Amino acid sequence: MDSFRGEFVSTELAMFRAIKAYKKAYALNFIKKGKAYFKTKKEVREFIKESFRGEDLFSGGDGTPYIEGVIICVDKDGDLRNKFIVNENGVYKRLDSIDEDRVYEFLFKNQHRIGKINLMSVEKKEIESEVKKDCEVLPQKADERIIQIMNKITKVIK
């Protein structure tokens, strides 16, 4: 009897996880085609809390409420956390209700950003903007500046 119950529970759990994964893949595929899948902000909130539990949700920059380099994730309890800030307990900072509402509002309006993570480092972004600025101001010295910045990058990588 116990083996049957254990088998039943694990089969039910596997089926539940498979259905959840299918719903997530279906919604993200629908959004990827450029269509709006969710009709309300509440639907976005429920989908994210159910489907992205323990995963990264989106990264900052490009019109988001956060700067580039910030990653917002969903913890095991379904709360949103900012991976850019670590509190005194060594845990990522939990977003307050105002920030959570701002995130859900942004994701409702920009559904294509759900699940999109840009892992480009902030330092790399700063170096790219520095090169662009230097190339615009002094085109004749651009090659020298690029060599200096490339040396700086190789030092960071080492």
From TrEMBL:
Protein name: Uncharacterized protein
Native species: Campylobacter portucalensis
Classification lineage: Bacteria, Pseudomonadati, Campylobacterota, Epsilonproteobacteria, Campylobacterales
